[in-house]
């Protein structure tokens, strides 16, 4: 998973990877909200310095694409202020877990725990909350889960058993 690494065309839409097909998109500006939480990296090994145990939270509204290879979010091309991030690209196999939340008050949302890519600007423990403003979220969650299984199994439809 990488922050601000998505290649975009002149219309600010993602350029497909080889053999990549769009499954679902919400391509009207500001209809999707991504809230990204990135923990500071803790000191590792015998190091005495590192992250302070805090976290960075970023929230943007924009567009979303789900392909057979990745989940992509982009912010509007033009805006009044510079966004905290312009794009987020998450390979389907980097989604460690997903949780559909239905709060008593407020809109449904999904939380994804994500494995960061080396040098992608994110750390272990990163998660993202996704909210839709113009439609229900349930259909998207179902399609996302089916896409993850398909990618994980190479199209066989069943997850591999771990030995």
Automatic annotation (TrEMBL):
CDD domains with a match to the protein in the record: PH-GRAM_WBP2
MF (Gene Ontology): chromatin DNA binding; transcription coactivator activity
InterPro entries, alphabetized: WBP2-like (IPR044852)
Chain intervals for the UniProt region annotation (Disordered): 36-57
GO cellular component, as recorded: nucleus
Organism domain of life: Eukaryota
Protein name: Uncharacterized protein
Biological source species: Suillus luteus UH-Slu-Lm8-n1
Highest classification ranks of the organism: Eukaryota, Fungi, Dikarya, Basidiomycota, Agaricomycotina
């Amino acid at each position: 998973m990488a922050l601000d690494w998505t290649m975009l065309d002149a219309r600010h839409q993602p350029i497909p990877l080889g053999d990549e097909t769009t499954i679902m998109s919400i391509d009207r500006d500001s209809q999707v909200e991504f809230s990204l939480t990135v923990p500071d990296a803790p000191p590792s090994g015998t190091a005495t310095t590192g992250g302070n145990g805090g976290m960075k939270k970023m929230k943007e509204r924009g567009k979303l694409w789900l392909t057979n290879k990745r989940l992509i979010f982009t912010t509007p091309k033009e805006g009044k202020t510079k966004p905290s991030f312009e794009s987020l690209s998450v390979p389907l196999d980097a989604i460690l877990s997903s949780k559909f939340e239905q709060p008593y008050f407020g809109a449904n949302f999904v939380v994804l725990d994500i494995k960061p890519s080396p040098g992608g600007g994110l750390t272990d423990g990163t998660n993202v909350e996704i909210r839709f403003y113009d439609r229900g979220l349930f259909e998207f969650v179902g399609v996302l889960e089916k896409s993850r299984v398909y990618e994980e199994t190479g199209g066989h439809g069943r997850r591999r058993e771990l030995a």
